[in-house]
Amino acid sequence: MDEQIRKVHQGQAHMSKKHRVEFRLWQVLTSSWARHPMGFQKAHPFTLKHRKEFEALDKQIRDHWESVKQPEWEYRHKVAFKNKLERILADFLTRPLKLVITGSTVSGVGTANSDADIVLCAPEIIYPLPRDMEDDGRLFTISKDEMKRLFRSRIGVVLRRCKRVLDEADLGVKIDYVDAQIPLLKMRGETVDEVTGNTFNMEVDLSLSNELFISSLHNTHLIKGYTKVDERFAPLVTLVKMWSFISGVRDPQRRRFNSYTMTLLVIHFLQCGLPRPILPNLQAMFSEFYALDENCFPERVDLDADIPEPLPELIGYDPIGLSVAELFYLFIAYYSTLDLRHNVIRIKCGRISKRDFNNDRQPRYEPMRMVEDDDENDIKLTPWPHRFHEVYIEDPIDEHNPGRTVDDWEIVRNAFADTLNVFNRIDDPEQAKHFLFPDLEDLTARILKD
Question: What is this structure's pTM?
């Protein structure tokens, strides 16, 4: 987090409650108004001209959201399964631990039959690693990346032991150990809800964290807060995720965005892509309630708790009264004109800023090499020269780059532009005679053919 932002939060401690609220309002307005509403001036007249068509599309979107959103019984079933895992592992590991559900299951944007991400938080399960190691009389300084690799190896050992215990517990699901960048246990199987009797294809990804700070939990907490600010946020996120998968924008295996990044793109758009923000900067307003980074976060997270104080009336004030369908169109128009190669999205600060390649902390490739220091007789691991990531989106919690999966922004931006053209052809005199305004099926099924 910027030093200036940190000083701002520190300075609030010396203010009276009244002045603190006024200062937060000023801070939110000044940060959120550092906006980048590219494309709005051109795109908004189109939504006004075709208001009736957008109203029909909006009804389809809302009906679809009601049909696909996660039912309450499914959420309770996942929580009950989590509690069962916690009891089994607590008896086995004999150390303080806690299982927490993160991701869309509890963030308010989850859909039916979605998988559950569960984190096994056990701070005492992995003992600290030394910073230095000796070999043949020479001192090896372990780099931060090497420390991560050693931790990853030990996490894998613990998860494989957990797998053996869970297999013996006969949970009715198949459990596989996945040796990925983040090791985890994948659980898959058909289960029956004891209350409703409904069958459910349970899919769980269980990971392990030896730290008190769990970034995925605080990300989930922040997203859940935004679902409470505006009721259009959740259906818009669901539509964007569905569209992005069909259009190829969301496909990390093909070097495109992942699902979490698409949610961040929606948050940024609703903060900075319109003349007035629909979503505020919750981290700036309630720094004691939402995490800022790994050094400043609430000790207890209650996902069901309401936002501590009423939001200022100006925040969320939408004089235009945009529907979800209109917001989706403006979302597409915004990113079809935005240059993410030279701009950085910073949700924590509520703004977009020019990218500083001289101070870019997120490399695309960073293999390690051994370099011997003659003066100190040390051998240290140092990174090779690297290229920078194509896209930089600053995570609102731990400041890593969720946009690092994209290797060609122009291809992604062209997908936004192609979707925009599906709408705009209605104003083309040569095509308007045979053109029907796109419906939900057009946006999610036939977009590539168009």
Answer: 0.82
